[in-house]
Amino acid sequence: MQTLPKERRYETLSYLPPLSDAQIAKQVQYILDQGYIPAVEFNETSEPTTFFWTLWKLPLFNAKSTQEVLSEVQGCRSQFGNCFIRVVGFDNVKQCQVLSFIVHKPGSSRY
Prior knowledge:
Blueprint: H1 21-33, E1 37-43, E2 54-56, H2 66-79, E3 84-91, E4 96-104
Helix pairs in contact: 1-2
């Protein structure tokens, strides 16, 4: 067993290599398939214990396709490209956020 090098980790999926656009789309599709409500959030830093994330527009209550969600990610990225951007999934039965993952890091050309 090998110890991972000490480096900054970011939320769900942070121990994996950066997700490709197709992998991000699959994760968003999973959110929709589970009946979770997707939302896009952004912040200058990803430190969850110190800062709150800002919601980009309203949660996407009526989103039916991954493209709807990814369009909002792209809109957020074009306006706040210097911020971390994440997609979250809310469970309307449990009334809480059940998953989140970062889709954009500052200085990155990824989705």
